[in-house]
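Preliminary data (for renewal application), magnesium ion complex.
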Amino acid sequence: MPVSSPYPLVTIAYALETILAHCPPLGSERVPLTAALNRVLAEDILAPMPMPPFPAAAKDGYAVIAADPTRRRRLIGEQTAGRVAALRVEPGTVVRITTGAAIPPGADAVLMVEHTTERDGWVEIETTVAPGADIRPVGQDIAAGERVLSRGTVLGPAEIGLLAAVGQATVPVYRRPRVAILSTGDELREPGEPLGPGQIYDANRFSLAAAVTLAGGVPSLFGIAADTPEALEAFLENALANHEVLLTSGGVSMGQLDLLKPMLERRGTVHFGRVIMKPGKPVTFATLEGRPVFALPGFPVSALVAFELFVRPALRHMQGDHAWQRPRVPVTLAHDLRHDPERVEYQRARVVLEGGRFIATTTGPQGSGRLLSLVGANALLELQPGSDRLPAGATVTALLLQPPTTT
Ligand code: AMP
Ligand code: MG
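Predicted structure:
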């Protein structure tokens, strides 16, 4: 008698919607600016002060009165960046000034040093200057109270610099989800150890830990569990304690020892157990005591593609990132392609920018176990069912995992 899965096939859109509903943004924490790179801002930031906070010189030169007709003016002192002297510019006088220095009272323009000659305490003025010239007025760059950054922004060098510029030593960011990662399978061994008959090395725990880190999560590696209920129970028990997300690979197909789905069913709620996609069809999503559990298929490519489609969006969403989706762009196929006629298929490809167009080339045989098909891939081609082949020159949608290179 044929065995059929009790789990209905759901669409990718349904799966994603279900996942996001169970993966709301985590709370926030304050981190120093030096630890803020790539974190997601948890609050709007309003500038507590204007920038610049005082009228500042934009050039090296002399602070002058623009309307002063005197050609030869007396130098009454110097005001450099950060050093404020008690000076007042009157008609017939100037103050030497450097870029970034406060403009002394009385002056309303800066005359560039290039248009002057200074000798024995006197300055020859060789040109005229407009009021306000080379002065950066208070609040020119940022007004006091202005919203300079919005919640949900990913912090890069410019954003971190801006926070420092408005005086913030720490920044409120969303917490990073802690992700417990388990590989399952009696056949799996640790890299570095000798292989016995029928054994292979565990690849998924390491690829998934790297993917979690890139997605902003904090991975904890829980080792390899044998295909026994006890080993899986022990993982769930231990991991639930201090992780927001549980991530397993293997043990979700239709084999005798694919024990994860029934176990998740007993202990929590399985929201879906199969998705209409290739690779990654048996990907399973459950919640256990309110925590999301992703049970990915064991084939190394299936595991990473399912991670990319479902786990990465969840981790970004939990970190408050509005841009939790990868960019999707139209690409032109460099060659003919065969694909699955019934399921959306994600084929690994290299996309380059050539003559103003994105051109996609396959990374070779697309077997679910062939990790080499993901090595060097910067895109997943999203091939819709309905046909089983596409000609060279056809336009398809690609999920960009990394920016395309130029030829
Ligand atoms: P499963 O989903 O457990 O049926 O596994 C599907 C295939 O992926 C089998 O050939 C497994 O040996 C292989 N596999 C499962 N887990 C891993 C892993 N962590 N690393 C490498 N291959 C794996
Ligand atoms: Mg297995």
